[in-house]
Amino acid sequence: MKIEDSFQKLVTRLYVAFLLWLFGILILIPLNHSWSNYVSFIILIPISILFICSIKDIKLFSEYAGKFLCERRKKTKVEPYIQFCYACWIIVSIIFFAPFLYYINSVIGGIFLFGSILCILLIVFLNFKYFALFILNMCDHVN
């Protein structure tokens, strides 16, 4: 029951964050181009609050998704799959936060983007053995 409630809260919060993001990117920022950095800051606050409130749900969902992927692939280690889910969440956060941070200040947006990509590369580097085995297994199934 806990995973179902957690998943429902996570989907609801991400849906509301997506609607705020969409409203900000498509309507508010183009209409208020001279005030776009203030509008970006105003929209960034609720999106950040929704992401911070859903960190526990994201962690729980990533653990269950990692265990599911591990059981499906019949592998013994769960950690690479959980870290892969974390990398996917980092990509989602880049999509949500980067446009607004660039409107506020391009340097802050660049630092955020650089740090996020560095985290993704670190996850891939630490689990390169598992990703390489996955790719090799996929190539064996093609032949």
Q: How would you portray this structure in words?
A:
This protein is mainly α. It has one domain (about 1-140). It has 6 helices and no strands. α4 packs antiparallel against α5 (about 105-125). The chain starts with a helix and ends with a helix.
Q: What characteristics describe this protein?
A:
single chain, 143 residues, mainly alpha, 6 helices, 90% helix, 0% strand
- The first-to-last residue Cα distance is 43 Å
Shape from CA axes? globular
Question: Percent range for helical residues?
Answer: over 70%
Strand content: under 5%
Q: What Rg is obtained from the alpha carbons, in whole angstroms? A: 18 Å
Describe the protein's topology.
Layout (H helix, E strand, L loop, with lengths): L1 H30 L4 H18 L1 H19 L5 H26 L1 H21 L1 H15 L1
Short note summarizing the structure:
The chain is mainly alpha-helical.
